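User
Please review the sequence:
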Amino acid sequence: MNDYLPDFMHTLYLCYFGLREPLVQTQVLPYLQQLRDDDVKISLLTFEPDFKQKWSTDEVERQRNELCSQGIDWYCLPYHKKPSVPATFYDVIAGARFARQMILRNGVNVLHARSHVPAMMGAVAKAGKRDVKMIFDIRGFMPEEYVDAGVWRANGKLYQTVKRVERRLLKNADAFVVLTEKAREILFPESAKNGFDKLNRPIEVIPCCVDLKKFEAANDQARREIREKLCITNRRVIVYVGALGGWYLTDEMADLMAAAKKRDSQTFALVLTQSPAEMIRQLLIKREFAETDFLVTKVSPEEIPRYLSAADVALSFIKPCYSKLSSSPTKIAEYLAAGLPIISNGGVGDVAEMIEADQVGAIVRDFNQEEYSMVLQKIEKLSGEKDLAERCRQSARRRFSLQNVGGEKYRRLYRNLFESND
């Protein structure tokens, strides 16, 4: 047993995003609220872009009070963007200084670092403090992502420098979160037996989860209302939720939608995105979609379940590459929670294996018309099964429940954190 097992835990969650960003609202605050339910004192540090322009003193105070009522003490620092490397280095030092003060003055004994940059802050802040533990919440293979995106040169100086830093962070952290089984197999293959690595540090695989209660709104009444609103009552609807371009294969998604329309002229494409509509609108028009055959729009996160209820099948095409083996797309959990079968591609986290094991969709192996035809045929067959929607929801409950999967695994990680051997 560890000599430093505390009477209570006070965690400082280090997040290199702004509080208002959708990712923080859906993938940070809900998890912290789960930890709060396990009697962990929660503090959150975010980095706010254009802080002085976007936040007034009254707004900061109002938001701080709101989060305090939820059991979360919120702190923020300005985010610096340019020049990229010096700005990030400056933020690391500022974040580490703040975290060190929280350790010394506020009794913080856990630093929960969401991804690589916050992990650097945490590593500096906890130096010499044996009674402070750091969780490295690995949200992806960051160095490889920059290479796969074409930003860094493979094996270039910057890539090699960051890989050295990453190895140091992996060595010095006390516990880890990864998003996929594939990431765990790559980084901690020995943890498959009991959830601990060879140094007896706890490892948890926690995919991007969703609050399933919110998807109770994806019901038959919502389906009728949204379909009537969009004038698509008797049409087959393919839906896509999320960003366009970059990692997200927009041309290939348009091709799949066009293949579906060729098989069934009543096919309607529904794209819910914050990206500019023209990024896919022109692609669909070039593929002989009339203006009445598709809708590209932005809806609030609260409305997503209702709009998903209007669909018949959901789509997710993401660039398959090494770095994406560590990815867990939130849209996958949302689709399943809404009872929708999924068309996705392989090479992205555990998505393909999960879809095939649970029989909740079809996987595209190659981006060509023959493959699209085969996949659409499989989806049509699946759609004839009466229990398909419930099977999708069961998959979501088993794999992506915020409370029973994400929350429970985070709570277990915290319970194991101080019991691991030094």
Remarks:
- The chain has a mean pLDDT of 95.
- The first strand starts at residue 9 and ends at 15.
